[in-house]
Amino acid sequence: MPALNPRISRTAKLFLAGSQHSLAVENLPRIINCLNMLPEKEIWWRPNSASNSVGNLVLHLSGNITQWIISGLGGAPDNRERDLEFAECGPIPRRKLVARIRKAVREACIVLDNLSEESLSQKYNIQGFRVTGMYAVSHVSEHFAYHTGQIIFVTKLKRGKDLGFTHLPAIRPNKSVTK
What we know:
By secondary structure, this protein is mainly alpha-helical. It has a single domain (10-159), classed as Four Helix Bundle (Hemerythrin (Met), subunit A) (Up-down Bundle), CATH 1.20.120. The protein is built from 7 helices and 2 strands. It has helices at 10-37, 40-43, 54-71, 82-87, 94-113, 117-121, 133-159, and strands at 123-126, 129-132. It has a two-stranded antiparallel sheet. The longest helix has 28 residues, at 10-37.
C-alpha cells in the first residue's frame, strides 16, 4: 500500500489505513485462498436458488468496491450492472475472478490514498444513497468483510476442514498484577 495523503489528520489517516488493511491485507488474501482451494465447478456451486455462489460473491464485491470507492469517491464512471453479478452462473475462470477482485482492491486503495480530509465529510450520491465519504469507506470495508465470511463458510463447507485463517496471539500472564 502506498503512503496515505500527508495533508489529512492523524485520525483520518488511521481510519483510511485501517480500511485499506481490512480490504487488502486481511480479506483479499482469504478470498484468493478460498478461490484457489475450490475446483472451478465448486466456485459456481449454489446450495439453493436463493443463495449465491462464491463466484457471484466475488463479482459482487468487485462491483461494490468499484461503484462505492473507485466511482463514488474517486470519480471514475459508474458502469455497474449489479443484477448481472448475481445472475452469472459461470464459468468465469478462477484466474479472471482473482484478477478482477485484485484490480478492484488495488484501485480502491489508490483512491483511499488520495482522499482529502474534506472528502470524508463531503456528501456523495452512490447507488441511490446520499452518504458521506466516511460512510462510503466504512460501508465497503464492512460489506467486503461480511461477504468474505460467506466465501470462507462455503469453502469450509465444501472442503470439510479448518482453513487456518484465524491465528490469535498467545496470551501471556500479566505478572505485574498484585493480589
